[in-house]
Amino acid sequence: MHISDLPVKAAVQCFQVVGNDLFAGSDSGIFRSTDDGFSWKPEVSGIPLNRKIRTLGYLGKIFVGTSQGLYSSSDGGSNWDLITNIDNLSLDQIQKLSVSHIICTLYGIFALSSAGVLNSSDGGNQWSVVSTTVVSDANPYSQGGLAAIGPVIFAADGNGFISSTSIDHPG
């Protein structure tokens, strides 16, 4: 396997396919390959370099969960914006938000974060905290995850799990 341009210590955490492009999220940032993984270039415009990329998702926009914030790109990954419109969270809380998992479904976008389970039902424009029972910690190697079966969402944090029957599910 040829991975020529990824830094040796990139510590890749996740991948996301968007069209014909492959994105890799790592402890060194986001990288994009337009040639099936033979070469890579960094895509960091708007994401501070000290952010560890923990998860990627795609639903019309690319969503990135980091060690400090949730970001989106509406131009295919060239530019990234911190998502600041999360109900009931201050800007300081949003900037310190650790996001470990993202899933994009027909019923919305869900993210497991240090504030709990976040949801956007409008393509990522407005977000809300739908559960604080299950949270993600700042450890990128911690247990936990998100899954969906139709409209039912499951969230786990290594200490237990909840489903959309026990959270305020918007769908």
Task: Describe it.
The protein has 171 residues and is an all-beta fold. The chain has 1 helix and 15 strands; from the N terminus they run ββββββββαβββββββ. It has one helix spanning 91-95; strands at 12-18, 21-26, 29-33, 41-42, 53-59, 61-66, 69-73, 81-82, 99-105, 108-113, 116-120, 128-131, 145-149, 152-156, 161-163. The protein is globular, with a radius of gyration of 15 Å. The relative contact order is 0.13.
Write the layout of secondary structure elements.
Elements: E1 12-18, E2 21-26, E3 29-33, E4 41-42, E5 53-59, E6 61-66, E7 69-73, E8 81-82, H1 91-95, E9 99-105, E10 108-113, E11 116-120, E12 128-131, E13 145-149, E14 152-156, E15 161-163
Antiparallel strand pairs: 1-2, 2-3, 3-4, 5-6, 6-7, 7-8, 9-10, 10-11, 11-12, 13-14, 14-15
Can you give me a brief rundown of this structure?
With 171 residues, the chain is mainly β. 3% of the residues lie in helices and 44% in strands. The longest helix has 5 residues, at 91-95.
Strand order of the largest sheet: 1-2-3-4
Q: Provide the residue-averaged pLDDT.
A: 83
The coarse silhouette is globular
Helix content: under 10%
Instruction: Give the oligomer, counting copies of the same chain as homo and different chains as hetero.
Output: single chain
Beta fraction: 35-45%
Order of helices and strands: EEEEEEEEHEEEEEEE
Number of helices: 1
Given helix and strand content, the structural type is mainly beta
Tally the beta strands: 15
Please state the CA-atom Rg, rounded to the nearest Å.
15 Å
Provide the low-confidence segments as ranges.
Answer: none
Distance, first to last CA: 42 Å
Q: Summarize the biggest pleated sheet.
A: 4 strands, antiparallel
